[in-house]
Amino acid sequence: MKRSRREVQLRQQALLHYLSENPDATPAELAEIFSVSPVTLHRDLRLLEEHHLVETYYGGVRLLSAETASEDLLICQEAIARYAASFVEDDDLIFLNTSSTALMMLPYVEAKNVTVITNNGNAIKHNYRSNLSIILTGGELRHPKESMVGDYAVRTLMGISARKCFLGCSGLSLERGMTTINFNEVSLNELMVERTVGDTFILCDHTKIQRDENYTSCSLEKIDHIITDSRLDPAVASLYRRQGLDLHTAPIERKTAAQ
């Protein structure tokens, strides 16, 4: 099996190299050159697309530069943030964690008299409307993410009950739920879920679904809504919905090859 995995990796690297020299290659051409079935090629391209290395479009595929890939992911995250903001209602008190996607919600919240409690230090320099009040938990500031963690932040959250919470994550899977790479943030994510009297929303772009990271912050049983983007594989979305999870796919505008 290890040999097979290595062969797949080598083929995908060769695909990327070929696309760098042949930007107008079609899927049919690629399948023929690399002697694979259309199904196998589709699987390879799907994986490369999930890692923002290529973009497929009707009748073709193109290589993404690092700058384009970063911009593409940002578009997905902004779509999720905009969609999530529509769930905030007048007079809500909500939790946001250290997720950059969750923080992107702030300029899109149109509800009145909303209070945001967050351990994300970047909220200080983020744009938001006058209808929002931002309260920081305080705590030890950790770089480079500017997250506030530790006992002080924990004690702050223990004295607050929120109507909703919006949590970004490093990974989300059916087996382990919401996961993160930062151990110091686990207890704060857990507290935000526990101290929420209404719905819990997990914000997760398509590259993070069915991906596990080091530490579990929240089990699936405690999640009311998952908001991802419309680039998630419909088959994967179906798996989550069959588990009874309310999974939302935020619409995004897909660029054409000409763009």
CATH architecture of the largest domain: 3-Layer(aba) Sandwich
Side-by-side strand order of the widest sheet: 5-4-3-8-11-13-14
How large, in whole angstroms, is the Cα Rg? 20 Å
As for the number of domains, it is 2
Mean pLDDT, as a whole number? 89
Count of DSSP strands: 14
The helix tally amounts to 8
The CATH superfamily of the largest domain is Translation initiation factor eif-2b, domain 2
Written description of the protein model:
- By secondary structure, this protein is α/β, with parallel strands linked by helices.
- The chain has two domains: 2-64, Winged helix-like DNA-binding domain superfamily/Winged helix DNA-binding domain (Arc Repressor Mutant, subunit A, Orthogonal Bundle); 70-250, Rossmann fold, CATH 3.40.50.10470.
- Helix content is 35%, strand content 25%.
- It has eight helices and 14 strands.
- The chain has a seven-stranded parallel β-sheet with strand order 5-4-3-8-11-13-14. It has a three-stranded antiparallel β-sheet with strand order 9-10-12.
- Helix 6 (151-158) runs parallel beside helix 7 (186-194).
- The chain starts with a helix and ends in a 9-residue tail after the last strand.
- 33% of the residues are buried.
- The model is unreliable at 255-259 (pLDDT under 50).
